[in-house]
Amino acid sequence: MAVNLQFFYTDFVGLSAGLVAWSLLAARVFDSLTDPVMGYLSDRTNSRFGRRRPYFFLAAIPLAIVFYFLLSPPILDDPENHQGYLLAYMLSLYILTYFIWTVAAIPYFSLGAELSDDYNERLKVIAVRESCTLVGLVAATVLPAWLIYSYGGVRDTPLWGEFSVRVLLCF
Fold first, then answer.
1. pTM over 0.85
2. CA 6 → CA 11, 14, 118, 132, distances in Å?
């Protein structure tokens, strides 16, 4: 996400590269604080659906909505004079994205170790999960560049938000 987001916000939205970099750093620092808290909460959750699954359902739709807004920022005629507004927009939505992602991802990554008591079965489950993650990362890195090339890199194309919601709904 960060690879494509910095390109998107600098080249299409018009936010300065320095502000984008500080936004990415601030979001990661925030994420480093919320991950252990989410792990603690997930480990101590008791529900009829299990310890981990309620968080997947809790985060799914809000994550799609936040992705849509993060990738559909306001297109301003003069972004150079609205850097503060664009920074606040990106920073608030990116931090919110990381927060919601943490709600789903930390329990998801913890679930693999709980699916079986057998070491080899756990190893296979985690290996498949990580293999699929790698394929997804490659697709998420290459596909936006291909779409930008295909659509000519038009600044007013509302493609990013719509595309992100469609991809999330597929999974």
1. no
2. 8, 10, 42, 24
Distances (CA, A) of 146 to 71, 140, 159: 16, 10, 12
Q: For the chain, what is the domain count? A: 1
Are 105 and 58 in contact by the 8 Å Cβ rule? The answer is no
Tell me what pLDDT residue 69 has.
Answer: 94
State which residues form the domain around 145.
2-170
pLDDT tens readout for residues 17-54 = 999 999 999 999 999 999 999 999 999 999 999 889 99
> What pLDDT digit, counting tens, does each position of 77-131 carry?
888 999 999 999 999 999 999 999 999 999 999 988 888 889 999 999 999 999 9
CA gap 106, 24 in Å, rounded: 20
DSSP labels, the chain: -HHHHHHIIIIII---HHHHHHHHHHHHHHHHHHHHHHHHHHHT---TT-SSHHHHHHHHHHHHHHHHHHTS----S-GGGGHHHHHHHHHHHHHHHHHHHHHHHHHHHHHGGGS-S-HHHHHHHHHHHHHHHHHHHHHHHHHHHHHHHHTTT-TT-THHHHHHHHHHHH-
